[in-house]
Amino acid sequence: MTEFGFIDQIKALCESLPKCGCEGIGDDCAVMPIGGGRSLHFTGDMLVERVHFLREATSPYDLGRKSLAVNLSDVASMGARPVATLLSLSIPSELMGGWIEEFMRGYRDLSLEHGVALIGGDTTASKLDLAINITAIGESEDHLIKRRSGARVGDLIVVTGDLGGSGRGLRDLLNGHFESPAAQLHKRPTARVNEGQWLARWGEIHSMMDISDGVASDLRHILKASDVGAEVELSLVPISKVEAIEEPNCGALRDALSAGEDYELLFTCEAEAFERLATQYKERFGQPLSQIGKIVAGAELVWLDGGVAVGDDFSGFTHY
Ligand code: ADP
Ligand code: MG
């Protein structure tokens, strides 16, 4: 069974549970309306040693920041403002002391940068590996929430920044190049926290999520949730130019679509708004927005190269 097959199974098995006014499972965050036109957002992301990181390849400080950043990215992708986190750690005894203190310094510094409180969690011993589990809580006005389910036929598909740099960095790391520019990008991702809240103010944006598993996988979540299809023009995909030591095995384009962990935002918007949006985004954040395709009727995701359909079925990262 795949990761997403398992999540579908959880959903089906727990269908009979009360919703208690919440929306979830299925989006980057679960949404809980709290009245007065506002909602809270909840998300959890876990990082496990040897699955998500190698202890010898990262500094504890960077790992503290990254653990938080990947959670803030999910809050940002709903257009929400992160307000608080819960942090649970399962710590091998040899990391108690200086190592875990440095981890906490990284966690604290990024929390400070975004004005996020740490309000609880749990601490246990671990017999072997380090595991980090975070719950992040955000808040927003109801009418600004960007869900995966809002994409409409005719919308343009847009990504922030560029893609594939983190995947190239992971390849460098796995080959022992821990400090190449790409490896550093992989270890120090930036969650688009301010960008997500800024984009939320645009009513012309109909759906949004963050890119954690690669556009090839993540766009499919938007299509499924919105009951639409898409055409993506490969020549429009913004490929990261970050310096890496190892050559991509299957080309930089495949890294950009399939490797994941770029933590950029993927959204769909009304076509007429795109130029205005891109100009203002560039002025505000100094980064490009790239239009890579459009939402169409149906359920298919078609990859085009110069307008011609290519047979390739790019796929993103999955745990199983
Ligand atoms: P993301 O990449 O944005 O963190 P995921 O792909 O991990 O999202 O998860 C997809 C959806 O499934 C989310 O709504 C998430 O909360 C939910 N989910 C994942 N694992 C579980 C689980 N073990 N139990 C309940 N919900 C889960
Ligand atoms: Mg996400």
Explained architecture:
By secondary structure, the protein is an alpha+beta fold. The chain has helices spanning 3-13, 60-77, 98-114, 165-174, 181-187, 193-200, 215-226, 252-259, 274-285, and strands spanning 30-35, 38-48, 81-92, 117-126, 131-141, 156-160, 205-210, 229-233, 265-269, 289-296, 301-305, 308-309. Strands 7-9-6-10-8-11-12 form a seven-stranded mixed beta sheet. A five-stranded mixed beta sheet has the order 1-2-5-3-4. β3 (81-92), α3 (98-114) and β4 (117-126) form a beta-alpha-beta unit. α2 packs parallel to α3 (98-114), α2 packs parallel to α6 and α4 crosses α8. The longest helix has 18 residues, at 60-77. It is globular. 42% of the residues are buried.
Task: Please give a quick description of this structure.
The chain is α+β, with helices and mostly antiparallel strands. 32% of the residues lie in helices and 27% in strands. The model has no long low-confidence stretch (mean pLDDT 96).
